[in-house]
Specification:
There is one protein chain. The chain is mainly alpha-helical. It has two domains: 124 residues, no CATH class; 105 residues. It is 71% helix and 0% strand. Helix 1 packs antiparallel against helix 2. The longest helix has 49 residues. InterPro entries: CLAMP (IPR032727).
Amino acid sequence: MALLTPQGVKKVFQFQKTEGREHLRRLLNWEEFDELRDSRRSILLDTLYESIIFAVGKGFPWVEVVKVVKFTEELIKETKGCSITEAVTILGNKLRDYQGQFNTTHLLALCDYFHNTFIRHYKLYQYVLGQDQEVNLTVIHLEVCLPPQPLPLSEGMDRELWKHEQQVAELSMAEVQKRTNVLLLKETLHLEQEHMLQKKFSEVLAQHTQVLKREELENLVQEAIQIQIECLKKLLQYEIQITFDILDLKLQKKALNLNAPVPFPLSITGQPGQDESLKFNKANKGKKAKAKN
């Protein structure tokens, strides 16, 4: 309490609460402590700080504010482990001991303050400040990922226009994918055709070690042609279907482009061509009005 002077408590009151509590801790000559792990000391510091706020609010002189802090600290120490009846008796005795240091009005205000705070919540004060508390504190360090830096507003675009461009891009991508599928199918059918022809030729050669007869050769050629026709048929059917799909995609793109949103509202001012057109129309209207007169 040696460092707790009227000038010191005045600074405590003038600071914001966080800075005021810290300044009060230094005036009390307390070591720094962890607010979360040492909740008892934190609550005690809050109690002493609130007593300063109370005393200043009630108009106590700065000298008496120091005494209120001393009174609060002594009361908490002397009532440790006592019953509420004993605590009320101790409070009454301390008020009599301090009656020469406060005027009647301030003494009654001090009595009301401790009855409405300390005595009313006495069991809670005793539970927190009168016995050791087991603190189970889990600390988890989480990495916070900041959002990406937004692009300049000059590079932005209207939301509806952006959605329109996304839809057009999706249709274009679908068209490219379908054309790619046609090329892949051509390559697949070509390999399949070669495999089937090679297999057929191998079967015929395995059955005939001598020169093929005319009839056997014709059958072999017909089967080879049939294999090519089947592969070509599959390819044509797929190409026809893909062509219709691509035409449908182009039609959708055309419809989207016809209903494309306007990027920004058209401004009449600042456009020379439109300004001249407006002036020309106004001049014509003026001439017509004169002619009627």
